[in-house]
Automatic annotation (TrEMBL):
Protein name (database record): 5-hydroxytryptamine receptor 5B
SUPFAM superfamilies on file: Family A G protein-coupled receptor-like
Main location: membrane
Residue stretches spanning the membrane: 49-78, 90-110, 130-150, 171-192, 212-234, 295-315, 335-353
Source species taxonomy: Eukaryota, Metazoa, Chordata, Craniata, Vertebrata
Similarity comment text for this entry: Belongs to the G-protein coupled receptor 1 family.
UniProt-listed InterPro entries: 5HT5B_rcpt (IPR000431), 5HT_rcpt (IPR002231), GPCR_Rhodpsn (IPR000276)
Domain of life: Eukaryota
Key words, A-Z: Cell membrane, Disulfide bond, G-protein coupled receptor, Glycoprotein, Membrane, Receptor, Transducer, Transmembrane, Transmembrane helix
Organism: Rangifer tarandus platyrhynchus
Amino acid sequence: MEAANLSVASTGVALRLGPAAFSSSPHPSGVVGSTPGGAAPPGREPPFSVFSMLVVTLLVLLIAATFLWNLLVLVTILRVRAFHRVPHNLVASTAVSDMLVAALVMPLSLVSELSAGRRWLLGRRLCHVWISFDVMCCTASIWNVAAIALDRYWTITRHLQYTLRARRRASVLMIALTWALSALIALAPLLFGWGEAYDARLQRCQVSQEPSYAVFSTCGAFYLPLGVVLFVYWKIYKAAKFRFGRRCRAVLPLPSTVQGKEAPQEAEMVCTARRPAAAFPPSGASWREQKEKRAAVMVGILIGVFVLCWTPFFLAELIGPLCACSLPPVWKSVFLWLGYSNSFFNPLIYTAFNKNYNSAFKSLFTKQR
């Protein structure tokens, strides 16, 4: 009777756990044992699939390319004397933040991705260091994009008042505020006890999930600079549409005589806009307008890539703690690395629209040979 009860009880447990709860594995002694969940025996990790190896290879290449490209931009700015002025100090600040993301943040994030169950096996202290650098460097990168957008906006709309001296002061102030705010957001949990990043029981290391800190960090690190760059680009678009939307045509003035001879006629550009027509020389502001148009296009692409890379991650970071829900780990990883990739695209964008960087890169490699 007791044997029958024991058999029934064991059958009930097997039904509750399901057919995949146990899997048989032969032992050296010939006794059949079981491992929970079909997992590999202790000491043996399941082999990586071809897809996993491909993803890891791509992430390693992304880390190396991000670090090397930002390092190249930074070395070029430091070595070329013509770049020792604004707006190149803003570009240098962006390159520093993106290079730190590639050097200090992305490798440890990859180590966490490769661990079984995405566990953190490097201890509590290193977890706090990693999370602090992660939040600070990514926030600084985002705010540097906003600073570059503001600098381009003031250059296009206030080019008479926004002199080189004013730009230098504004850029230094924006860089100081960028790094100060980034450090405050990153260190707030440690300074004020605003949640805990490391869970020893689950061996998990992540940004504090305290709802109030989630609102503070996501707004300060993303939503506020997002509002700034969208407003700035809207203003740049309006200014560019008014300035470049004018219709210009070449006309010849009425002939005039000087001492019985006709004076040489010079073509003038007549531009029509909402205001009365005005005459400009053919070589008037065309160079400056082309430069401002390239700057407007660059800012637009920079902002567009920034929004596409970081919006999914920060939406998940804000909604998750507030609704006490969580995305599947795979999607968390996809959104996180999509945000990291913004540090790779930044230097590509703001150097592709500046011919001086291309010539500086060529001269740099030529001298090294």
